[in-house]
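[Automated response] Your request has been received and processed.

Submitted sequence:
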Amino acid sequence: MALDKLIAERLKKLENFKEAGIDPYPAQSKRTHLASEALADFSKLSKSKKKIFINGRIVGLRVQGGLMFIDLQDESGNIQLLVRKNQWKKHFNLFKNNLDIGDFLEAQGSLFKTKKGQKSIDVKNLKLLVKSLRPLPDQWYGLEDVEIKFRQRYLDLLINPEIKELFIKKNKFWRATRNFLTNNSFLEVETPVLEAIPGGADAEPFVTHHNALDTDFYLRISLEIPLKKILVGGYESVFEIGRIFRNEGISSEHLQDYTQCEFYWAYHDINDLKKFSEQLYKNIVKETTGGLKTKWRGKEIKWGGKWPELDYYKLFKKKVGLDIDKVSLTELKKKARQHKIKLEKGLGKGRLIDLLYKKLIRPGLIQPAFLMNPPALLEPLAKRSMSNPNRVERLQIVACGTELGKGFSEGNDPVDQRARFEEQMALRESGDKDAQRLDEDFLNALEYGMPPAAGFGFSERLFAILMDRPVRETVIFPLMRIKK
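Generated structure:
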């Protein structure tokens, strides 16, 4: 039957309830037990014949003469209701003829076992809580269309238990992150989403207009700059879990708006960060998945044990065939073209090195490891290495062919930071739209003095990798193109 006819039938049933004096959308309902609680305490409740109240959605409905068998589902699970006409004559026929799968009910009754041994509720009274006007997907077209799954995620959650469990695990993921940091004396803070100057990352921002101030602002592309200003203000261990926005392409690893965690840790450096971040990740993986081994594209990923260190320069020379210390811009462009890497206008050495790394090296990094100390050109906010000022004290956690987080000893020399910002601005002027901008307010803060510190950030990409899913599938409501 066509959808419009099914909806018309349900609208008629809605009117039938109204004509009988029943409010199909009451404000009040009563609940004493979840389905799982009632079943877990079945022995005690069934012996006492205690009356309980259960609420939920109808997911199964069978009528046999003067009996109605109803499968009711709440957040915790399902329970069977048995409604007998001889015990509830008042509205039995009305409900029998006008209930549909998808409706919400409140049931009052006592627990017992049917002749077939099924734990059920012997219903003494039913109350309609919501009359559903649209049939659930599996009743008329299923839910195979990916676009429908994303646009109407509530249906996906409703009929696919594994998707519902996915977002329970995502809650565990962020809860484990927050608990680990707060248990290590980090202070959680909130910083503005709107910024006058987008900073802290190489990314193109979204622009919005503030009517009251008649000023354009940017949606933040990172949490870094304001959190480091807080270190200047005297807090020593801070973190934020917040939404950031990057106006970049869609892929299995990239979203335009997503959740990121960043923390900043005064009087610590990259060596402290390496130990701490490994502990953090192992805790998150265990709390989220129940162990320290996960599956990714058929491979077993081992998060336990000591993670190896990989030297960025040595790996680049081995896999790409170029010496970063000696390579020219021309040689980098030639190598990129050989590997069919698209080159946009104005790309400097740092961006080309990064593109070659992402194309030729990163896909082969499968087991968890630390990628250490890249060129300073790649990370204008990181502290230069004492042994080689052309490199920075940065680590990336890599696994499953991608970056799953990075951190570094934070640059806090305002003179050097200004010079590096100016290098970035020159790249912007030559056409690199992702290059960072000079931020006078941040430089002003550094001039007051920021303590030596380590900083680290990671996003929900880590969760997607743990679940072995594209990142868009792990977002309840991913951004979709507007239908015209």
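Summary generated for your ticket: The two ends are 27 Å apart (CA to CA). The mean pLDDT is 94.
If you did not submit this request, please reply to this message.
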